[in-house]
Each structure stands twice: as C-alpha cells, then as structure tokens.
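About this split. The held-out portion is used to measure sequence recovery: a designer receives only the structure tokens and must propose an amino acid at every position. Recovery is the fraction of positions where the proposal matches the reference. Here is one held-out target exactly as it appears in the evaluation file.
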C-alpha cells in the first residue's frame, strides 16, 4: 500500500532563487557601473575560463519570458537580488531611475502572475567605487572592512525600499555575509579577492552593522505588513569524533561560520570565545558603542541557505599538508581567521555533487531545529538549497537530471522532518531557477532547474523543474523518491 505523501502547511511558499550578477548580464546598460565582481571576473586567473557576468543569462532583457517560465512551473514565490551598481552606480547619492524601473517592472510582472517577490538587497555586487574608497583612512582599506560602507548600504536600502515598498512584502538585507567577508577578504576566492584576516573580521562586523542599519532604513520606508530578514549560510558543522580536540574544533568553526553573525543579529553580542580565538589578530576595537544594539534589529524571518555539512577535527598533520577540504575553493589563504592551526576539515560522507559537496540532507534538518531553538519566535525560510550536476540535453532534447531530483527530494523531506519536530518553516527556495554564473567557477557549474544554452540563451526546464512543479502544485512531497 502506498504510504501517504508528506504534506506541507497551507501557504507554504514554493520558490526559486537567483542573484543579479549571476543572471542579469547587461553589465553596462542604463548607467550601471562595475561592481567588485565585474572587476574580479575581468582580472585574469580569478574566474575559471575567464568567464564574466557581462552577459550572464541575459535576464535583464529576458525577464518577461523568465517570469512566464516561473508561472508555468507554478512557483508561488521568487527570490531575486537588486544590483546595487545598477540602482546607485557610485554607491552613494541619488538613484538611477532606469535601474529601479527594471525592478519595478519585474515585480509588477511577478505579481500579475501571482508570484510573491522576495527581494535581497545585497548578493555580493558591491559598487567598485566603494571598494576603492576608505574615508576612515583605515589600513584595512575600503569595501566592507571600511565602516562607512555600512552607512552607504543603509542609504541604498532606503532607496530600494522607497521604490518597491508598495509592492514587495518580503525583504532580505544580505545574502550569505560569511562569503562576502571571509571568501572576499580572507581567502580571496571571491571578489574583491583580498587576503587579509583582519580585513575579513572587520568586513564581518560591518556587514552585521549594514544589516541593522539597512533594516532600520527599510522599516522607515515600508508599510507595517512588510517583513524584513536576512539570508545566512550557517554551517552544519560536525565534529569528526567526540574527542575534546574535535569538539573544540567544532566550537571554533561554529564561532567563525555561524555565531559571528547570529550573535550580533539575534543576541546583540560577539561571543567571548570568538573574541579570544582571534585576539592574536585584532582587539575588535572596530566594534563601536551602540553597534550591537543596531545589529540586533528585530528579525521578521531568518533565511537559511544550505548545501552540505562540514566535518572538522583538531588539526592533523596530513590535513595541514594538503588542500583545505572545507568546500570553499582552492586558496593558500584561509577563510578561517585564527583557526587554521587548530582545525582540519574532512570530507563528510555521502555522494558528491559536481561542486564536490557531499549530499547530506540531515544537516538541513539540524540547522532548522538549531535556529528554532535559538530564536523560537523567528519564522524560517530555506532561502537557498540545491545542487550542481553536469547536465546536458539528451538526444530527445530534454534535460534529464535524476540526481538533482533525488537531492531536492531528500532535502525537501528534511524540511518536512524539521516542521514535524516543531520548526516554523514557511517556504523553500530552490537554488537556482536558471543555470547561471557560479562565481569563481564561471559557467562550468550548473545549479539550475532550468537548463540554459549559453550560446543561444535557450531555456529548457530540466526534469527536476517538472518534478518541482508537481510538488509546488500539490503542496505535497511523495514520500518515496521516484526516478524519472
Ligand atoms: O551560487 C551560489 C549563490 O550565489 C549563493 N549561495 C550558494 C550558491 C551555490 O554556490
């Protein structure tokens, strides 16, 4: 006898997510100026194959068709990001109306198709002018290590809030600030490609401050019904064994990956162990009076982005000799300030995706329950989850991606487990709607539920998109995974 399907709560959002630099292209249209990702991707050797986001998947011109595609898949929500340099090219001063008009039209089209927009204000495309500016004169340089950038972000948040506030109800300030701070300024595998551990910690703090100031600025512009949150990529970090050394490694990475953001945002603190672990590098005097009150702006929701867990142990000699297995790209510089000599990363068990990330849905359940325990009053969304595989059209012209269906099935089931165990999860956003520019990997990694032919820009929904459409339409997940 067939077992019952897994039913999701009424009103649960079934969405897909994208980010401006990864899909829009039109890098020079309508007054847009370079972001740090334009500069980085145009720097030889930084992105695989020399790929850039100049054209990407041309969403800036194909947005109407893309919304039609989403409607055809029955999505009830779409999470996209606004390109800061399209809206405020120098990162300060008045807005460019043509840039804002693009997002106004996009939102109107989504609403006309019954698709609820979720706007992310910052998905890594800092205007280059702000990276180059450091009014405080700090030795750590401009960009996020510079305090003023947080105030510039608040100004930009107010501009976008004023322009779209009458039609967008769900707002996320930042996407994955861990990547902005620690991959951008620590290991340098992301833009702007700097490798300074102190700059990375300063960047983390100024991103927390930007979140708080940006949330305040949005609140001033938005109607009371609007909900303001943030999308983090917390690490489901597991100790290799229960030894004291491995548990201490877990504590260190939990501090640097997770609590460096959730401390200021949820509790208004930087935990003592984080400060102590990094004391050799900085005294944290860049945290000023009142900052931690601002960073703790009430959250209307918390977005969790999840792909794979991390396994850590006390540092082992052989691990120290080889490449770091933390899944965050190859760099001799670390994204873990102060932790390297204490921690080794290990490959978690499980099949690997094309990113070499292990498939383990239990990490998602664990995180959802962890944040339920930490902030029981804050509703959760899975604002990103998905997998890259080497998808190609078959002879029938269709793109069959059973591995992705299996990945999505197991992770959506993991969300259901968390809901049954008490987590208030209100929606799931698949990463990503379309194949797109996967940062330092360029176009070599395909995360889309919809295949894009980069020569012709033709879109072909993969079998995972058709499968997801059925889940979205029914609000139910078949209990067993069924291959296509
Ligand atoms: O493509 C990225 C996205 O921009 C942020 N979260 C992780 C995705 C996959 O690497």
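Reference sequence for scoring:
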């Amino acid at each position: 006898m067939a077992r019952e399907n897994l039913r999701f709560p009424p009103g649960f959002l079934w969405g897909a997510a994208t980010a401006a630099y990864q899909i829009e292209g039109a890098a020079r249209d309508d007054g847009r100026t370079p972001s740090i990702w334009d500069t980085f991707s145009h720097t030889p050797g930084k992105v695989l194959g020399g790929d850039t986001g100049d054209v990407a998947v041309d969403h800036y011109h194909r947005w109407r068709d893309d919304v039609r595609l989403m409607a055809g898949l029955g999505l009830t929500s779409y999470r996209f990001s606004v390109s800061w340099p399209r809206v405020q090219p120098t990162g300060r001063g008045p807005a460019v109306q043509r840039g804002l008009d693009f997002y106004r039209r996009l939102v109107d089209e989504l609403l006309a198709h019954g698709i609820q927009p979720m706007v992310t204000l910052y998905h890594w495309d800092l205007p280059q002018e702000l990276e180059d500016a450091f009014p405080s004169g700090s030795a750590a340089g401009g960009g996020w290590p510079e305090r003023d950038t947080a105030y510039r972000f608040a100004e930009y948040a107010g501009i976008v809030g004023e322009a779209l506030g009458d039609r967008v109800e769900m707002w996320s300030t930042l996407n994955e600030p861990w990547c902005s701070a620690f991959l951008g300024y620590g290991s340098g595998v992301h833009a702007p490609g700097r490798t300074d551990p102190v700059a990375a910690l300063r960047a983390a703090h100024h991103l927390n401050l930007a979140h708080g100031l940006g949330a305040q600025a949005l609140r001033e512009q938005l109607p009371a019904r609007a909900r303001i949150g943030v999308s983090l990529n917390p690490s489901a970090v597991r100790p290799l064994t229960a030894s004291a050394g491995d548990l201490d490694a877990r504590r260190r990475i939990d501090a640097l990956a997770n609590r460096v953001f959730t401390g200021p945002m949820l509790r208004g603190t930087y935990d003592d162990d984080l400060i102590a672990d990094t004391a050799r590098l900085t005294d944290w005097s860049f945290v000023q009076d009142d900052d931690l009150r601002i960073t703790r702006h009430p959250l209307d929701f918390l977005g969790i982005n999840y792909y794979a867990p991390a396994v850590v142990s006390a540092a082992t000699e052989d691990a120290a000799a080889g490449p770091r297995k933390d899944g965050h790209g190859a760099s001799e510089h670390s994204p873990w300030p102060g932790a390297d000599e204490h921690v080794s990363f290990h490959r978690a068990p499980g099949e690997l995706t094309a990113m070499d990330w292990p498939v383990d849905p239990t990490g998602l359940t664990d995180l959802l329950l962890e944040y339920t325990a930490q902030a029981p009053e804050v509703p959760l969304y899975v604002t990103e989850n998905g997998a890259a595989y080497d998808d190609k059209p078959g002879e029938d012209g269709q793109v069959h991606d059973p591995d992705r269906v299996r990945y999505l099935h197991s992770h959506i089931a993991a969300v259901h487990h968390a809901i049954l165990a008490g987590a208030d999860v209100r929606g799931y956003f698949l990463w990503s709607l379309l194949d797109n520019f996967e940062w330092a990997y360029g176009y070599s990694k395909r995360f889309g539920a919809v295949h894009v032919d980069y020569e012709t820009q033709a879109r072909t929904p993969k079998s995972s998109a058709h499968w997801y459409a059925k889940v979205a339409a029914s609000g139910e997940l078949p209990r067993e995974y069924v291959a296509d």
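Annotator remark: Residues 19, 22, 176, 305, 384, 431, 438, 447 surround 5-hydroxymethyl-3,4-dihydroxypiperidine (CB under 6 Å).
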